[in-house]
Structures are given as structure tokens and as C-alpha cells.
Design brief:
Layout lengths: L4 H10 L2 E9 L1 H17 L4 H21 L3 E4 L7 E13 L2 E11 L3 H12 L3 H13 L12 H8 L5 E6 L4 E9 L1
Antiparallel strand pairs: 1-3, 2-3, 3-4, 4-6, 5-6
Length: about 180
């Protein structure tokens, strides 16, 4: 790896990546990431609206990793009992005049088709349709089997300037790697 670090760095640079993280995610790490991104974007004189949209999408993608990643690790919390953290990957960058936020994590294969259906449906909606759909979904009672309210993907689609891109890579009989990209 040490011999290839420069090539890895150049690969990231050529693809507009200026922030990436792979490992265990937590609420406090998410806050630190948002702070680093805010400072970076302010130094670049990014528009306030772009900063807010990037933050919103980073928060949604990290929360999805924290809630749904099928890949976990035990983390020592500085002398406290070990806790389980969810693993994932987050990448943020700027390319061709747009910011992008990409995340990925393992999910159970049983979730793939339902998630693909939701994302395909959202990708086919206009901004007005997304707004109306969000309002309707917000009034519904949350799914008792879901740790979230189910609004995160809709919110990402509303904030993104283009339809959300996504992919599933089957790893084995139990899990697939789920990737999602929002362009702002």
C-alpha cells in the first residue's frame, strides 16, 4: 500500500474527492465530518444553499449507515463497555461544477429489492411530486420494524439536483454492498 499511496491520492484527486472515510460511524463522528466539510466549503466560498444541501445529504447517508449497515464492529468507548458500531464508507467531492456525496455499506440481501423499488420510484418523480410524496409520508405512522421514519431517502432526493444514483453488489448469500450517490 505504501508504494501505491500516491496513485491512490491521484485517483481521488482526478475524481474530485476531497473527503473520504471508511470505518465505524457514530453520531459524534458525523458531527465532526459536517464541521470539517463546512470549513472546507466555506474556504472555497461555496454558496450557503450548497453547503446546507451537502450537510443534509451527508447526515442522511451517515444515519442510514448507522441504522442499517449489516457490517458491525465492536468499539471500545474509552473505558466504558464495548458498543457495536456500524461500518460504512463516505465520500464527498466536487466535480464538473457539482458537489457529490456517496456512501456505501453492507445490507442484507433480503432488503435489496425493496430498497431498489423505493429508489427507482423516487428517481422517476419530479421535484413537485417528491414534495407532495414527502408530505404524505410524513403524516403516516412509522414502520415499527424500521429504526427511522422512512423519510431520509425522500429528503435526499429532494435536496439532490439530479436523480439519485445507486448500485448493489452481491457479496455472498447473506449480504450485498449498497452504494448511493447524490449530486448537489
Amino acid at each position: 500500500m505504501i508504494d501505491n499511496l500516491y496513485q491512490f491520492r491521484e485517483h481521488l484527486r482526478l475524481h474530485g474527492v476531497y473527503f473520504s472515510f471508511m470505518g465505524p460511524f457514530s453520531q459524534s463522528l458525523m458531527e465532526d465530518i459536517v464541521d470539517v466539510l463546512r470549513r472546507r466549503m466555506q474556504l472555497e466560498n461555496a454558496k450557503t444553499s450548497a453547503i446546507m444541501h451537502v450537510f443534509a445529504i451527508v447526515v442522511e447517508q451517515v444515519q442510514n449507515i448507522i441504522r442499517y449497515s449489516a457490517e458491525t464492529t465492536s468499539v471500545d468507548t474509552l473505558g466504558q463497555d464495548d458498543t457495536t458500531s456500524r461500518l460504512g464508507t463516505l465520500v464527498v467531492g466536487y466535480e464538473q461544477g457539482d458537489y457529490f456525496v456517496i456512501s456505501g455499506n453492507m445490507i442484507e440481501n433480503t432488503q435489496v429489492e425493496q430498497l431498489r423499488g423505493k429508489l427507482t420510484k423516487l428517481g422517476a418523480m419530479t421535484k413537485d411530486e417528491l414534495k407532495q410524496y414527502y408530505k404524505v409520508q410524513r403524516r403516516k405512522k412509522p414502520d415499527p420494524e424500521s429504526p427511522g421514519a422512512g423519510l431520509g431517502l425522500i429528503e435526499m432526493a429532494r435536496k439532490a439536483s439530479k436523480p439519485i444514483e445507486f448500485a448493489f453488489q452481491r457479496i455472498d448469500d447473506r449480504v450485498s454492498f449498497f452504494s448511493i450517490k447524490a449530486i448537489i
